[in-house]
UniProtKB/TrEMBL annotation:
The chain crosses the membrane at residues 35-52, 76-96, 103-122, 128-145, 166-189, 262-280, 311-334, 346-366, 373-392, 398-418, 430-450, 462-481. It holds the Pfam family MFS_1. One of its GO terms (molecular function) is transmembrane transporter activity. InterPro entries: MFS, MFS_trans_sf, MFS_TsgA-like. The keyword ATP-binding does not apply. This is L-fucose:H+ symporter permease. One of its GO terms (cellular component) is plasma membrane. It comes from Rhodopirellula sallentina SM41. It is a multi-pass membrane protein. PANTHER family: L-FUCOSE-PROTON SYMPORTER. CDD domains: MFS_FucP_like. It is found in: Cell inner membrane. Keywords: Cell membrane, Membrane, Transmembrane, Transmembrane helix.
Length: 491
């Protein structure tokens, strides 16, 4: 079985990763039949790292309450999670050069499982820092997976359809993300005793709620901005419980951390099963897996190419924007719209459903619209929706925040494809590591946004992702006005 693009035959296949930035030609296979099974198996990895990403996002809020720490401190979850990508992407690229894509994927699975299993001692010892170490090790594994799977997918077929092929594989990433969100909503959130504590505080304050509804017709959000939020009250109540009844607080903490631990243990088992499956399955190899040029020489060549340099910067801004929007949608819903954790997570799930749907739509649109133009248009729309999240009240602002996901769906694989365009295979492999290292934006920007929330409030913190989308829009415009136009002129 093969999947064809809908556009005449292109030129001969190049040795490297030659990714066109114009709509692809009719009749060129996206997934040749000889690579179909390997493509399917490798694409499963995209869902597995999506699961890890999005079951972790809600834990920023959970850890804030369970461990009684600040927004800045709880954002260390994302700092450790995405910092692991930065730490391990280059070693992963070196491993691929030395061995193979398949070997790197197997190492990724082993590290993924090891990090997930650290949730066991972390929960039993009620230790936030062991959780942080676990997330760090887990993302060592994700760095190996992403550094190997992305260029592996690009190599599985004609270079003319490489961007389409990667967008198709990446379309399964949000399926894993959505699964992680659903488990966070249906397994973790309803079983947290800290959630029951919040509900009890709500039920004990009917007079306050009635006062808000009578004197503040726009409801709790405006009242909260002026006088503080229910979230503030819950935090103070938990802090008081920690002092006045430490035994009860510790029991609640132990229970909630056990709830958090369970899905990580399950996913560790699933990942180990995939490790065994890859070990016994014959996967394709490519001559380009064994380049001879020194890494320093390749890095120098990469840095001399503006579309690659700018692509790495754009990718860092994109990942930072994505993680801030998806992590702090929970804070937005709970603090500005007075939703429960489960209700806020439902909006996060809606964002992921929109993201998933839009990913398939954008993959189709790439047949007719060049990547640079589509990227610039969606970044502009994301800027508008972010402004709505900042300036509009209540659920209208929250809806704008959710709709940003429709714009983000295209960005990661398309920036990736543009950055690696026309690179020889040995450069593409190391270039892939640079783009995965750019995921460090997901470590730094949430930490900065957590600080903004502590100092300026949730609403004003979304100026940060707006700046990110402006940078991505500039990259998109430069792509279709400079890089794509230069290619067309050369042709």
């Amino acid at each position: 079985m093969s999947i064809d693009s809908s556009q005449p035959d292109a030129a001969d296949e190049a040795n490297g990763v030659d990714i066109p930035t114009e709509p692809v030609s009719r009749g060129i296979e996206v997934i040749p039949k000889e690579y179909f099974a390997a493509f399917v198996l490798t694409t499963c990895c995209f869902a597995l790292w999506g699961f890890a990403n999005d079951i972790t996002n809600p834990l920023v809020k959970v850890f804030k309450e369970v461990f009684q720490i600040s927004n800045t401190q709880s954002s260390l979850v994302q700092f450790a999670f995405y910092g692991g990508y930065f730490t391990m992407a280059l070693p992963a690229a070196y491993f691929i050069r030395k061995f193979s894509y398949k070997g790197a994927i197997m190492v990724g699975f082993a590290l993924y499982a090891a990090g997930a299993l650290l949730s066991i001692p972390a929960s039993l010892n009620q230790n936030f820092w062991i959780f942080i170490a676990g997330f760090y090790v887990l993302t060592f594994g994700l760095a190996f997976l992403e550094t190997s799977c992305n260029p592996y997918i690009l190599a599985m077929g004609p270079p003319e359809t490489a961007t389409q092929r990667l967008n198709l594989a990446q379309a399964f990433n949000p399926i894993g993300s959505l699964t992680g969100m659903v488990i966070a909503t249906t397994v973790i959130a309803p079983n947290l005793q800290v959630g029951e504590f919040r509900s009890n505080m709500e039920s004990k304050a009917p007079a306050a709620v009635a006062y808000v509804e009578e004197d503040y017709p726009d409801g709790l959000p405006n009242f909260a901005e002026e006088f503080g939020t229910l979230d503030d009250a819950v935090g103070k109540g938990l802090a008081n419980m920690q002092v006045t009844d430490p035994e009860a607080f510790q029991t609640m903490q132990l229970h909630d951390l056990a709830v958090v631990r369970t899905p990580y243990v399950v996913i560790a088992i699933v990942v180990l099963c995939f490790l065994v499956l890859f070990a016994v399955t014959k996967m394709p190899t490519f001559a380009s897996e064994h380049p001879d040029a020194p890494m320093t020489e390749i890095i120098g060549r990469l840095l001399s190419k503006p579309h690659y340099r700018e692509g790495v910067v754009a990718q860092a801004f994109y990942v930072g924007a994505q993680i801030t929007c998806w992590t702090f949608i929970i804070h937005y819903g709970m603090e500005l719209v007075s939703l429960s954790l489960a209700e806020a997570q439902t909006w996060n799930i809606a964002a992921m459903v929109i993201f998933l749907t839009s990913r398939f739509v954008c993959t189709f649109l790439l047949k007719y619209i060049s990547p640079g133009r589509l990227l610039a248009a969606l970044a502009a729309a994301a800027i508008a929706f972010t402004a709505g999240a900042i300036f509009l009240e209540g659920k209208t602002g929250l809806t704008c925040l959710v709709l940003i996901s429709a714009c983000m769906s295209l960005m990661f694989p398309t920036i990736y494809g543009i950055a690696l365009k026309d690179l020889p295979a040995e450069e593409a492999k190391l270039g892939s590591a640079g783009l995965i290292m750019a995921i460090v934006g997901g470590a730094l920007l949430p930490l900065l946004q957590g600080k903004f929330i502590d100092e300026l409030g949730v609403r004003n913190s979304f100026y940060l992702p707006m700046i990110c989308f402006i940078a991505i829009a500039i990259f998109g415009v430069r792509t279709f006005t400079r890089f794509e136009r230069t290619e067309a002129s050369a042709a």
